[in-house]
Amino acid sequence: MKTVYEVVYQTQNSYEETVREAFFSFLVLPCQDQTQQVRTCSFSNSLDAEVFHHRNPFGFDVTSLRSPRPFTQFEFCMRAVVEKSFAFFPYGSTMTVAQEQEQLQDHSFYLSHHLFLSTGHYTRIDPQHYPQLLFRQKDQTVYQYLQQLNNHLYQLLEFDPEPTHVCTSANEVLQLGRGVCQDFTHLFIGVARLHKIPCRYVSGYLNQGLNLTGTAVMHAWAEAYIPGFGWQGFDPTNNLLADVHYIKAAHGSDYSDCSPIKGMLRTNGGHTTTYGVKIIPLPEPYSSQ
Amino acid sequence: MDAALRQNQISDVFKNYQIPPHFLDEVFQNPGEAHPHYQAVFQQFLDFTKDEFKELNEHAKMSFFNQGITFSVYSEEAKGVERIFPFDLFPRIIPASEWARLEEGIIQRCLAMNLFIEDIYTKQHILRDKVVPAELIFSSKNYLKAMLDIKPVGGIYNHISGTDLIKHRDGQYYVLEDNLRCPSGISYVLSNRVAMKRTLFQLFRQFNVNTVHEYPQELLATMQSVAPNGIDAPTCVVLTPGVYNSAYFEHAFLALTMGVPLVEGRDLYVEKNFVYMKTINGPKRVDVVYRRLDDDFLDPMTFKPDSMLGVPGIMAAYKKGNVNLLNAPGTGFADDKAVYAYVPDIIRYYLQQEPILNNVHTYRCEKEDDLAYVLENMDQLVVKPVDESGGYGILIGNKATKEQLSEFRHRVTENRRKYIAQPIMALSMHATFIEGEDQFEPRHVDLRTFTLLGKDRQFVLKGGLSRVALKKGSLIVNSSQGGGSKDTWVLMDDGTHMAMHQDNGSQSMTQNGQTMTMGPEGMTMGPLNPE
Prior knowledge:
The structure holds two protein chains of two kinds.
Chain A: E1 2-19, E2 21-26, E3 36-45, E4 52-55, E5 61-66, E6 71-85, H1 97-105, H2 107-112, H3 142-156, E7 158-159, H4 170-176, E8 178-179, H5 181-194, E9 199-206, E10 219-226, E11 230-235, E12 240-241, E13 246-252, E14 261-266, E15 271-281
Parallel strand pairs in A: 7-8
Antiparallel strand pairs in A: 1-6, 1-15, 2-5, 2-14, 3-6, 4-5, 9-10, 9-13, 10-11, 11-12
Helix pairs in contact in A: 3-5, 4-5
Chain B: H1 3-10, H2 12-15, E1 28-30, E2 33-34, H3 39-46, H4 50-67, E3 71-72, E4 82-83, E5 87-94, H5 96-121, H6 125-128, H7 134-138, E6 160-161, E7 164-167, E8 173-177, H8 186-204, H9 215-225, E9 236-239, H10 248-258, E10 262-263, E11 268-271, E12 274-279, E13 282-285, E14 288-291, H11 295-298, H12 314-319, E15 324-326, H13 337-340, H14 343-351, E16 358-359, E17 363-364, H15 368-376, E18 381-385, E19 395-396, H16 402-414, E20 419-423, E21 429-434, E22 439-448, E23 451-454, E24 457-460, E25 465-469, E26 483-490, H17 496-511, H18 520-523
Parallel strand pairs in B: 5-26, 8-16, 9-10, 9-14, 14-15
Antiparallel strand pairs in B: 1-2, 3-4, 6-23, 7-8, 7-22, 11-12, 12-13, 17-20, 18-19, 18-20, 21-22, 22-25, 23-24, 25-26
Helix pairs in contact in B: 4-8, 5-14
């Protein structure tokens, strides 16, 4: 089964004082992988600046632009048509629990995945919080365990955009007991990494037709490495596995690798920013069974 | 003034000189008896009266004021105060043969470090083979994921290295630090030489000392050698954080002596992944950047997002091969003081050679038994943070108070990855003119050397910065910590006239026994350039 989406990312920024010079980088374009293909994409901005691209350290497209003239308003828009195909889930593991653990302890496995195994500001968890967390039972496979963990975090935290911000760490989230998708995800990553399971931060878009949490803005979920299978997406905010409704833009070690917009501005005053996304499943003739 | 009277006065500046009992004296082998390669200079210095010497010293200082060579210190009390780096007129002399070996060792070390950095950012063979522990590298804040799989044009990461050496009691050189993050100090090397020539030209010209003034041209040639592909006449610039940086003088000095623009971040911009410089004639493409800006500040799109000093987008241009950066970002994990312990193994691993230069034994507090040893024996060790430079945050065990020791025990235990410890090295001492006392006294010295690696070119400056700890008994030579410096002479050949001097000198010295006050025969210097 395939679904075709139109994905739109839009941001509007207004500045109190004239911006003399600016440089913006966007990490918002849906990526290409086994389950998704970008059919078309286009970028527009209110400054008519020509955009240019490079790949970030994880191989994802970054779209940049430099302001050609001073301004006080700036709008940017990315539009893409993405074909999403059905993803396979790792039903029934091909490896025994012992084999899985052996792979996770392997030195060259560790080297290949080290960016998704070491913890930093966002994902480090103090031992004092361990009693609140769910740990893997000895006889559980990685996949079984992570599904439980997904559910556990969904129960443990309450979705609440108020108390947290872009710099909130997993430890703070555990103290608060609430947060947004970024916080759910960092916590999931932190716990998975405690088990030496490679786990990465994903930013992307969520189908808006399903009444899920986190569809108005860019969404975040985690991808964990299931031995014998590969990477599988987990969305602890919704207690779901990432499936055909999840359109991935980029992944990284944590949020700092995935922030959708970065800018450097030469201006004096403050500014206001709004942004929004649209993820619309396109009707036939795009969709096909 | 007759010879005898003059004799009595001249010895004033050396009269109280005491050869340090526990350290190697670079100048004297016995009281009043200089090492062969110092003989001629020593004899000439004896010729000056105390007053003459004081005058020379003032003259040398003036030369620095006039050259405008100052630095500023980062500290609470002295915020932004400009100071002159104290200069000592008694040159450090290194014989040609001794230097030849050193140079070989420095090149070996820098080449191995370059291969190491390349390996870490690409295939990580050395980690797969467990020669260096992977956690040690991955936990370094200077290991940058933004550098993964980037291969700079020319294949060089550490274009400029400032290897710090000391001479131990055993007469051997030891590497203290590798300094692969745009080391500073070269402007002092060059201006020390200028000051030396202005003050004691008659003395200087009698020796075959290797020149140092070619350094800026060598640096420029190094930059040009690693220009992006297809660029015949690359535009090179020096990127400075600005006038408030402690080494701003050096940035300006290098730009001036290389004949290239000195720019700040705001003078550059990136458009379509190329770097341009704003000039009065419009944009000009920049090909090679010698950046004296820390990694963190280089590109707000990749590193510290609030940096206003950097150039947004420059890392993408670098990754595309459209600009080259000296040094490459992310070299700092390799000069991490905990990684230092593995450098001999790193040399063996990549070059299949035995290391030429010695390494100081290093205890990594991260390791259980090392930590236990360090906590137990801290009063006999130097404890250093692994990622700082400039001599900040160091504890010297035998000089520390009980409170400092217990504070450091606490600090080390709290953050084990951040600290290493080494035995207190017996840095050699060198006769140094001490103002106030107005005489020569032994002071600890080290030696910073400067190495350039380019595409198919290597250069070690035959000279360096001999840094002196001016405080009596102090081992910390950093300029930011009250150090001074000396002109460093690397002799071109250990030629015949020096040897003859040794004979003449030591004969007369022996006649005079062990006393510093020399009789007339002792002062019969013999011709400096015997024809």
